[in-house]
Amino acid sequence: MTGLSYADSIILGVLQGITEFLPISSSGHLAVTQRLLELDPSGSDMLLFDVLAHLGTLLAVVIVFAGSARHFVRRLLAEPRASWSSKQYAWRIAALAILGTIPTGIIGVAFQDTFEAAFGKPVWIGLFLIVTGTVLAGTALIPAGRKGWKDFRWYHAVLIGIAQACAIFPGISRSGSTICVAAYLGIRRRWTAEFSFLLAFPAIAGASVFKLKDTITLPAGELGDIALGPVIVGSAVSFVVGIAALKILLGAVRRGRLHYFALYCWVLGALVATGVV
């Protein structure tokens, strides 16, 4: 295993930014790329890189959804007033988002060892990429959803949350699984993306906290050996690329073109599962 170089960090930063949002699985790509670059996923450089790269993509979500977030917060503050009693929805959506994050937390903690073991098994990563491609391809066969926020039920939130929890497996796309499940449930395209990333915020933040815990508990000697320059550069790259990738994803969702990514997932999944890459 080698240390993190500037070239490695840029490659990983580009991959993190692209695959965190495009429905092709960031965890699967990073697991394969780390192996090809002979990087130790449990090394101090990679642990800190994971933390800062996730924060970079989290900031990308904040930037792209800034307008929607401001509107949502204003609604949250206004709706407790009596004059808004007949047109409240922000608090309801917030409650559904909290409900949707519960499966992710429960499944993530309960099966953490299983998930971590899957990262070292290329066959499983490849098979999960093929599953992701199949789920994406299925969206070409369904009509555009018509359900808005008034039709959004608690079980919709739970099912989408379970889909997000499954994305802890390397090769299962978080954005792809949540948006596709919402689409299969008949939710309008606009809402599929917005609710997906409303769930993504605590999920990505939670992953960052777990990685940060692993990082700060390292021996002092290993902390001192972290290559801060490459880590920071890679994280900045993930932020910039993430903004572009997120905008591409939103365009694909609005136009009903998620199935365009299916062939890529199938081909890469087959190559990984058979040991070609």
Q: How does this structure look, described?
A:
- With 277 residues, this protein is mostly helical.
- The protein has one domain (6-37, 44-76, 89-273).
- It contains 13 helices and no strands.
- It has helices at residues 6-19, 26-36, 44-64, 66-78, 90-110, 112-118, 122-138, 154-166, 174-184, 189-216, 220-224, 228-254, 262-273.
- Helix 1 runs parallel beside helix 12 (228-254), helix 8 packs antiparallel against helix 9 and helix 9 runs antiparallel to helix 10 (189-216).
- It is globular, with a radius of gyration of 19 Å.
- The two termini are 17 Å apart.
- The mean pLDDT is 88.
Topology of this structure?
Elements: H1 6-19, H2 26-36, H3 44-64, H4 66-78, H5 90-110, H6 112-118, H7 122-138, H8 154-166, H9 174-184, H10 189-216, H11 220-224, H12 228-254, H13 262-273
Nutshell version of this structure?
By secondary structure, this protein is an all-alpha fold. It contains 13 helices and no strands.
Fill in the keyword field for this structure.
277 residues, 13 helices
Terminal Cα span = 17 Å
Helices, by number, come to 13
Query: Largest beta sheet, briefly?
Result: none
Low-confidence stretches: none
Whole-number count of domains: 1
Provide mean pLDDT, rounded.
88
- The portion of residues assigned to helices is over 70%
Order of helices and strands: HHHHHHHHHHHHH
Name the beta content range.
under 5%
DSSP summary, beta strand count: 0
**Class derived from helix and strand content:** mainly alpha
Radius of gyration: 19 Å
The coarse silhouette is globular
